[in-house]
TrEMBL record:
SUPFAM superfamilies: DPP6 N-terminal domain-like. It comes from marine sediment metagenome. This is Dipeptidylpeptidase IV N-terminal domain-containing protein. Belongs to the TolB family. InterPro entries: 6-blade_b-propeller_TolB-like, WD40. PANTHER family: PROTEIN TOLB, PROTEIN TOLB HOMOLOG.
């Protein structure tokens, strides 16, 4: 019998409403969303398992975490814009402020820019 290419593992047993898992470029850390006080927020957790660290806060919640190519930053979307932060939640800053219109951040390969969709003119562009 052939060994499977991927072996499933439970890294976050007991945690509820986990979504959007994404692995850091070096494979050491997961970023994911999870319910925190009625809102989805971004958390990080070592890939070998540990207690997750909440790295976003606020009344709007966050979604769609995306790692920078070098693993030094995470971009995520909130209802009020696109935000970039370090994996420990420090140095958080808004890079695109627009209520309800920016979504799906992805890093440019050189790590200097973030690509995202926007509905600023009433349609996705």
């Amino acid at each position: 019998m052939k060994k499977p290419a991927v072996t499933p593992d439970i890294l976050a047993a007991g945690l509820l409403a986990i979504g959007e898992p994404t692995l850091s470029p070096d494979g050491s850390t997961f970023a994911f969303t999870m319910d925190a006080g009625g809102r989805q927020h971004v958390f990080t957790m070592p890939a070998e398992g540990a207690f997750p660290l909440q790295i976003t806060t606020g009344i709007h919640g966050f979604a769609h975490p995306a790692w920078a190519p070098d693993g030094s930053r995470i971009a995520a979307v909130s209802r009020d814009g696109i935000w970039v932060m370090s994996p420990d939640g420090r140095d958080i800053k808004c890079i695109s402020r627009h209520t309800g219109g920016d979504d799906w951040p992805q890093w440019w390969p050189d790590g200097r820019s973030v690509l995202f969709s926007s509905r600023r003119r009433g349609w996705t562009q």
